[in-house]
Amino acid sequence: MRPSLVIVGAGPRGTGLLERIAANAPELYAGSGLDIHLVDPYPPGAGRIWRAAQSPLLWMNSHAEDVTMFTDDTVDLAGPVREGPTLHQWAHLPGRTFADRRLQGSYLRWVYEEAVTALPAGITVHHHPRRALRVSGPRTGRQQVWLEGRPRPLLADLVVLALGHLDAEPDAEQAALAAYARTHGLVHLPPDFTADSDLSALGAGEAVLVRGFGLAFVDLMVLLTEGRGGRYDGDTYVPSGREPVLYVGSRRGVPYHSKIGYDLTGERPPLPRFFGPAETDALLARPGGFDFRRDVWPLVDKELGFAHYHRLFTAHPERTAMAWAEFERRYADADAPARAALVAAAVPDPADRLDLAALDRPLDGVRHPSPEALQQALRGHIEADLARRHDPAHSPDLAVFLGLLSVYGQLVRLGDIGPWWHGFFSFLASGPPGPRLRQMLALSRAGLLHFVGADMTVTAADGVFRATSPTVPGFSVRARALVEARLPAPTVRRARDPLLRELHAEGAAETPDGLLRVDPADGRVLDRAGRPHPRRFALGPFTDGRTPGAFTRPRTGGAAFRQNDATARAALAFLRTLTARVAA
Fold first, then answer.
1. What pTM, to 2 d.p., does this model score?
2. DSSP string for residues in 252-272
3. Domain count, the chain
4. Region annotation Disordered: residue ranges (predicted)?
5. CATH label of the domain that carries residue 503
6. Cα separation of 454 and 380, whole Å?
7. Which of 123, 235, 566, 577 could pair with 119 in a Cys bridge, judged by C-beta atoms 3.0 to 4.6 Å apart?
8. Is residue 547 part of a domain?
């Protein structure tokens, strides 16, 4: 019987794994053929998120030149580097274009087809446009992958779960809000992928509370404005009359930072410097484990500060009061208070100093006397962010972005470090295109978008939803509709995916935050005793090995590519041993 590998999930992560199998197979697998079964109800390559069947108004939040599915020599991998075109090279776009998601889906489909073509003779790929329902089988034997609408399972020597982002059952708060909405005839849209949400219940002119100010909100904003026939005339929004009125707030109360709109010239910060493999190894070797805030964050803080000041001193020395060599020497030896004193002495303008706490919570302690004052202040905040993120005079911001990518590559090795870091990273490094923030300003001026403030609280009483924020003391907004503009939390036990829930019920381990635990070396699923399953792997945002994304910016190390390579090599080595044993 021919060996068989089943990959559940044929989107970007499954495609990236297939590319690494094709790259490594000539070295590692010279067996008697192999069947690779891709299981996904959505098209291979694009998967659900990047499928063609969605609005052309929805963009990527990265420049086309910053999107690649191919390795380069900055990726730490054991397999061969196989370079390929970025999205902008493949699609012949200007590098700074924000492509729509359907075009990215076409790029991913092409990558998938290239990977299939690159597989050695004897390796055959089969796509099953169905959902996988469960995986069964002994640790030491063939696995059975049961598919929706198929009476017999797929037999697999190995199974890789590349499920991507998952739907989730509501938590206690969401369940209570949904029940209240049903009882009182209100509209409640729980956390979801905005492109999949039914927005038809949000009526023209109706007040809608929106909790969440990240990329899911941007999609919502687009679909409820341009998606309903409105248009932009320069910096002015011309409504169609079909738009609801959005009242948006969040924990921070401000939108994610704009994408940076210039290139880095000159010397890059030499990263990692203070938080690299040696520091990560030391954390992993601690007998009692480590605490993120106590043990990890000080290293991250120092690393990001180094990236920032390296760029400031080397690219903008006229704004410093000390030679870089002296600053670097003193910075390396200083603890946090000493670094703060050093920066105060060496960087005269506070605007040139890196304050991560202020960046993370810009409205902490801020109070406005009226909603109108908040609207004016928030428009000023967004305008200032747009100006700064498109001005190369502030290029230390781009150096910090590169520092964030470097740090993320190390944090992946530590496993589940809690949700705070991922939100902080997205807020600073994975925000919307600048044009989207300019549209936000236009909608605010048109009276169709109102800012609620930070630490937004939603309550259900008196037959309505009510939103408040300490940013405007004493003010509240009442509405008959509430949208939770964020992705569902990737928790194993609340996942709607039956396969994942059953794995958990059978003993697969989860982290305190509900992520599936995997072996950081190769992605094998761990049980509650810490044992890696010899025949089951998992990659993606539902695991404690989650990365910033399945694709990445060129020449930034590509943590997902490193993981894909390790899993592909482990799978091929296992199958090679298996075929040799059978042949003997």
1. 0.94
2. S-SPPPPPP-S---SPPP---
3. 3
4. 528-556
5. 3.50.50.60
6. 16
7. 123
8. yes
